[in-house]
Amino acid sequence: MNILVLNCGSSSVKFQLIATDVELIAQNADRRLARGVIERIGGEAIITLHAEGREAQRSTAPLRDTRAAVELIIRWACSETSGIDTVKSVADVHAIGHRVVHGGERFTHSVLITDEVLRGIEDCIDLAPLHNPANIKGITAAREVFGVGLPQAAVFDTAFHQTLPDRAYLYALPYQLYRRHRIRRYGFHGTSHRYVAYRYRQLRNIARDETNVITLHLGNGCSAAAIRRGDSIDTSMGLTPLEGLVMGTRSGDLDPAIIDFIAAKEGLSAQEVETLLNKQSGLIGISGLTNDMRELLAEAREHDDRRARLAVEIFCYRVRKYIGAYLAAMNGADAIIFTGGIGENSVEVRALICDGLQWLGLELDEERNAAQREGREGIISHDNSRLAAYVIPTDEELLIARDTVRCVRGVPQRF
Ligand code: AMP
Among the four residues 99, 133, 156, 167, which has the most C-beta atoms within 10 Å? Predict the structure, then answer.
């Protein structure tokens, strides 16, 4: 089956076309046909379209809305210029898989989208006011372009973390706030944590219930997950993706009293403080320079910039604290796994995080660490390290495509 994977944001659409099916999944023989991103939808959009094995095509065009973007993608995929020989008409797309950010407590697995499911996703808008509406737009746009008959699946960022026990997902707030408003930890990046945990057990040739790892998704957004016997039992993001690790522009954990304090001192509304915590904090807030880890490392190295160095240090220190906390929460783990743009590529950040964890039995292998970048996967610790460390590039789109196939074929999902 050719699956179109869509990740629709407020003004962007990311997509991949992936050929997969039940047997291909079993053989790990799925094939990416194309990928791309359309940004600045609503104005002169910036379009990148990239068929596998060909040069990426970049252009701009005025695009009114998500529907126009989806139309453009499918028109391109079917055209001669794309060079995708297995997609010649709309009928060659057999199903669509959507990344949906928030599934609340209702969606514990990926599901085929019905009107009722769509209402369920709408019910979660409260919890993800920026993301779920954009995801819904993507679903309705795809229905309009492909017709309601084409199966569409929703794959939720929160679903993998629905196995958290109540002691991990409840905040120490009045319990009725959970009852009334479902205020609790949901966690995000679930598809990524799930994917790398799955790849880890493939690499080690072990069973799901032998998988005891801490997964670290370190990209522009960052989160950690404690995975015990294959299940997520704790994770660092909370009700929203603001909690936990230091991120590109997000603060992560802080004393909640700070919000009111900033509001009073700076004359800001609660909404404005929330924006400050989401958009002007984290790496960019500390450094005053950039949210881009690569640039921060370069600034620290080449210009000895104190705040750039501090931003990197605080970032790594927070990750280390979470590793320690999760090792305690899960009675020890076999490995930590790095993924995301920073986790997959930064030899230096991985070394800084692991430095100081020798007492836990984590012995980083310098050569192995230096070799794992630009999409390579593998172990980066010594063979005799008691706690192993791995780099596993994430592939959320592949998992979305596979879940879509499983939903369409009615086979159980492997979580
Ligand atoms: P993501 O959101 O997963 O695309 O990750 C984006 C982050 O990864 C940005 O902070 C980038 O600076 C960072 N990144 C990508 N490549 C490298 C690299 N070679 N070294 C350090 N950070 C990197």
Answer: 156
